[in-house]
Write a structure and sequence with these properties.
The chain is mainly alpha-helical and 65 residues long. It is 91% helix and 0% strand. It is built from two helices and no strands. Helix 1 runs antiparallel to helix 2.
Length: 65
């Protein structure tokens, strides 16, 4: 799971680096920016889901003690 998260973060970083470097033609910047935002939102949702799972597991573990 951690590897997937790292990969997704690297994809977002790569897009932003290309935008900042001027590597992408101006016409494509907006589309790439939207792509990066979309990936960031999906990653945020995945991280929230993982956080919720961890909280549930922690509560279950605390109850077992």
């Amino acid at each position: 799971m951690s590897n997937e998260i790292s990969k997704k973060m690297a994809e977002i970083d790569e897009i932003l680096i290309k935008i900042e470097s001027g590597e992408i033609p101006l016409e494509e910047v907006f589309e790439k920016y939207k792509e990066a935002i979309s990936k960031a939102k999906k990653l945020d949702e995945e991280l929230d889901s993982l956080k919720n799972e961890i909280e549930i597991l922690s509560k279950n573990f605390a109850q077992e003690e």
